[in-house]
């Protein structure tokens, strides 16, 4: 019934148009028919005139009018001929047949014959008037008036109208029948196609395949799919809290049956030899902090460099070990390197080249050919491991960070149907800065093997797209944030990373803030009225530790009332100590710390405590809960998760966060005291303000920060990426079916 109504919407206007056309056409056909017959009658009259001209001439010369009258009478017996009259040169009527109208004189007949429609209406009916010159002899010219019956023309017009109505009616019925049949076939085809879309099987039914006119439609479908993807991502509001269960549900519904593989340089668990046997450690890494909860939620395989002294002792024959040790929730596949390979790939190209290249920290990057060769070889080794671990042709692969810029294209070469999500955890520089890299094209080409390429902020996405535009011949669509290079298309999107929000069971197991503060104060020998500030970082020159110490020194200079009452504790986990730049930086930090302590310290008071060792998560959490403020002064950071871990630890909704404007997290956490770490005075003033901030203001700021970090947690970060991957996989399946239908 619905299809009939849809067809009537087309048929009724069509029939109305046909009726209107018939209404207009009938008078036109009448006039056209009359003109045709009038022309024929004129020709027929001339033929009669020519036939009788000789007889008229002879009769006029011989004076035999009776003979001519008889000839006229015989000619008038034609069924279409009404009457004939002969007019003299003076306009007088010389001869006529009996039916010739008495009211029609010669002058009148001549005038009527010269009209466009030479018609005369008589009581017996309409006649056609024709006046033709004839020779009467002796140089005189007369007129032969021929009157033809027009009633047969009316009959012919009536027949024409009848046939035209029949034709239009038949045409309308034929069009209606064809329309109904085609509409039914098309409707069924479109319904089947839409059902296929909903099933994710295609958008065109087989019966409408191989139709070039459908190519624009297929193009519009692809464009609309992209628009819907963009709208969906932008509309992802705070519908509900993201947690491991919701992430698992997303995998079950959108990536069901798909294998998840994570690739990173740093492993989530390190096995080390200790005096009492093998111990398991978790490295101090923002990447591990962010990704490890995702693997706990999703299972799968994590491929990483086995760097622990006992790593090789706990793996199976395939270099795998189940982790975490207490629950065995996913597989860790370890990759082995020689010291020379690690020096070239990790310490050399990755950390002496790529790290300073991408961070605006005023450290000159170093590029060596040997380091590049090692970097490329290790990337290939990891790619081979991904292929070996893949259980099918299209796994979902999460490539993590700047150690693997070449890896996506290498995986794509072996697994062209894989969905590769590359997340770049550090900033991306502008094209001018990146241009100093000798292998800039190779790095960009490797990264564009990704299906989705993620950065922390839109600013970093913009820098990357401008870099590609500068150095590669690629098609960039700013509206959809995609890059088409060769035969691959890459979505470049921002995914602000975060942490796993602690569960209620975890928070209930924490010691109270007062207990944590008492333990930390006793361990460090602090007075009960001490204002404690903490910083937790890797011992890296990009973290702004030196600038932080200068700010502490300036605080004590400007506000001497804090001497003896303000203590700054810096936890600095050693990292990359084999690199000269890092060793020099760490030595400088020790010297500055000693100088500040000598300047402002006493036998019982040290303003700065530098804890240059690795601290486990529980120890760091205890320090966060004990502190009055957390100081994050990164000179350039992709995101920085320390600030979010501090916020998560403060369930008492107290404490102040001081945050560098050059950390990606500053865009999400405006309630923090935002500072420019290069501006020592500004940072020192922020320290003073934080130390003096009323509890009510602390509560207001911290409560808002906790809502943000809780809602935008690591599961949301992973969920957005995996949801985009799912939609991308669906779109590729649809486009593949479109192409198959179009080419079949």
Question: How would you describe the overall organization of this protein?
Answer:
With 744 residues, the protein is of the alpha/beta class. The chain folds into 3 domains: 1-156, Beta-Lactamase (2-Layer Sandwich), CATH 3.30.450.20; 253-494, Glycogen Phosphorylase B (Rossmann fold, 3-Layer(aba) Sandwich); 523-712, Rossmann fold. The chain is 51% helix and 17% strand. The chain contains 23 helices and 23 strands. The strands form 4 sheets. Strands 10-11-9-6-12-13-14-17-16-15 form a 10-stranded mixed sheet, with helices on both faces. A 6-stranded parallel sheet has the order 20-19-18-21-22-23, with helices on both faces. Strand 10 and strand 11 (330-335) form a beta hairpin. Helix 6 (244-254) runs parallel beside helix 23 (714-743), helix 9 packs across helix 10 and helix 10 (369-389) packs across helix 11 (407-414). The protein is rod-shaped, with a radius of gyration of 48 Å.
Annotation keywords:
744 residues; alpha/beta; Beta-Lactamase; Rossmann fold; 3 domains; ten-stranded mixed beta sheet; six-stranded parallel beta sheet; 23 helices
What is the fold named in CATH at topology level of the largest domain? Rossmann fold
CATH top level class name of the largest domain? Alpha Beta
Radius of gyration, in Å, reads: 48 Å
| Shape assignment | rod-shaped
Helix content: 40-55%
Task: Describe how the helices and strands are arranged.
Layout: H1 2-62, H2 65-75, E1 81-87, E2 93-96, H3 106-113, E3 119-122, E4 125-137, E5 140-149, H4 151-199, H5 215-234, H6 244-254, E6 260-263, E7 270-274, E8 277-281, H7 286-298, E9 301-305, H8 311-314, E10 320-323, E11 330-335, H9 339-358, H10 369-389, E12 396-400, H11 407-414, E13 419-423, H12 431-434, H13 440-447, E14 452-455, H14 458-471, E15 475-477, E16 482-485, E17 488-494, H15 504-509, H16 513-524, E18 531-538, H17 545-558, E19 566-573, H18 580-600, E20 608-611, H19 617-626, E21 629-632, H20 642-649, E22 656-660, E23 673-675, H21 680-692, H22 695-711, H23 714-743
Parallel strand pairs: 6-9, 6-12, 9-11, 12-13, 13-14, 14-17, 18-19, 18-21, 19-20, 21-22, 22-23
Antiparallel strand pairs: 1-2, 1-5, 3-4, 4-5, 7-8, 10-11, 15-16, 16-17
């Amino acid at each position: 019934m619905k299809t009939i109504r849809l067809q009537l919407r087309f048929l009724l206007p069509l029939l109305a148009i046909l009726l209107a056309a018939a209404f207009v056409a009938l008078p036109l056909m009448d006039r056209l028919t009359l003109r045709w017959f009038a022309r024929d009658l004129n020709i027929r009259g001339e033929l009669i005139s020519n036939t009788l001209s000789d007889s008229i001439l002879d009769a006029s010369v011989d004076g035999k009018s009776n003979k001519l009258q008889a000839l006229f009478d015989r000619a008038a017996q034609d069924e279409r001929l009404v009457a004939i009259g002969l007019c003299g040169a003076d306009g007088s009527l010389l001869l006529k047949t009996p039916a010739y109208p008495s009211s029609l004189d010669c002058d009148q007949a001549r005038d009527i014959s010269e009209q466009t429609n030479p018609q005369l209406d008589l009581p017996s009916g309409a006649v056609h008037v024709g006046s033709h010159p004839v020779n009467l002899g002796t140089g005189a010219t007369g007129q032969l008036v021929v009157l033809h019956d027009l009633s047969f023309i009316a009959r012919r017009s009536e027949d024409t109208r009848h046939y035209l109505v029949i034709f239009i009616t038949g045409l309308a019925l034929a069009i209606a029948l064809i329309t109904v049949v085609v509409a039914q076939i098309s409707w069924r085809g479109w319904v089947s196609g839409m059902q296929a879309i909903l099933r994710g099987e295609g958008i065109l039914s087989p019966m409408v395949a191989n139709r070039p006119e459908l190519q624009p439609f297929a193009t519009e479908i692809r464009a609309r799919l992209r628009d819907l993807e963009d709208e969906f991502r932008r509309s992802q509001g705070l519908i509900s809290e993201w947690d491991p269960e919701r992430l698992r549900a997303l995998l079950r519904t959108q990536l069901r049956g798909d294998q998840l593989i994570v690739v990173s340089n740093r492993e989530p668990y390190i096995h080390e030899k200790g005096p009492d046997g093998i111990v398991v450690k978790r490295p101090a890494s923002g990447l591990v902090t962010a990704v490890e909860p995702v693997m706990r939620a999703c299972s799968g395989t994590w491929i990483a460099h086995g760097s622990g002294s006992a790593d090789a002792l706990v793996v199976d024959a395939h270099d795998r070990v189940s982790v975490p040790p207490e629950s065995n929730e996913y597989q860790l596949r370890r990759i082995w390197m020689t010291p020379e390979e690690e020096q070239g790939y990790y310490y050399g190209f990755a950390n002496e080249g790529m790290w300073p290249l991408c961070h605006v920290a005023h450290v000159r990057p170093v590029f060596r050919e040997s380091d590049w060769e090692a970097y490329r070889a290790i990337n290939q080794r990891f790619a081979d491991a991904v292929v070996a671990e893949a259980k099918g042709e299209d796994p979902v692969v999460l490539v993590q960070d700047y150690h693997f810029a070449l890896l996506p294209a290498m995986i794509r070469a072996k697994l062209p149907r894989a969905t590769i999500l590359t997340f770049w955890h550090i900033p991306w520089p502008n094209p001018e800065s990146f241009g100093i890299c000798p292998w800039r094209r190779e790095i960009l080409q490797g990264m564009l093997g990704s299906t989705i390429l993620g950065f922390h902020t839109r600013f970093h996405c913009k820098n990357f797209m401008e870099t590609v535009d500068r150095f590669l011949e690629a098609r960039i669509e700013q509206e959809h944030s995609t890059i088409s290079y060769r035969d691959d298309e890459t979505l470049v999107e921002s995914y602000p990373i975060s942490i796993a929000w602690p569960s209620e069971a975890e928070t209930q197991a924490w010691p109270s803030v007062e207990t944590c503060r008492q333990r930390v104060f006793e361990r460090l020998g602090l007075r009960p009225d001490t204002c404690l500030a903490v910083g937790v970082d890797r011992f890296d020159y990009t973290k702004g530790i030196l600038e932080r110490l200068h700010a502490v020194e300036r605080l004590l200079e400007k506000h001497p009332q804090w001497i003896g009452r303000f203590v700054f504790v810096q936890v600095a986990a050693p990292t990359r100590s084999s690199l000269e730049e890092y060793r020099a930086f760490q030595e400088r930090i020790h010297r500055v710390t000693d100088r500040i302590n000598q300047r402002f310290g006493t036998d019982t008071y040290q303003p700065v405590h530098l804890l240059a060792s690795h601290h486990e998560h529980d120890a760091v959490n205890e320090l966060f809960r004990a502190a009055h403020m957390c100081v994050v002064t990164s000179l350039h950071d992709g995101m920085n998760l320390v600030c979010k871990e501090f916020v998560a630890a403060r369930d008492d909704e107290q404490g102040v966060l001081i945050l560098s404007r050059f950390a990606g997290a500053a865009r999400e956490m405006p309630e923090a005291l935002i500072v420019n770490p290069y501006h020592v005075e500004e940072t020192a003033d922020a320290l003073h303000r934080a130390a003096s901030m009323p509890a009510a203001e602390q509560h207001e700021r911290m409560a808002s920060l906790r809502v943000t970090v809780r809602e935008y947690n690591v599961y949301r970060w992973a969920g957005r990426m995996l949801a985009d991957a799912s939609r991308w996989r669906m779109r590729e399946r649809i486009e593949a079916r479109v192409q198959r239908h179009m080419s079949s």
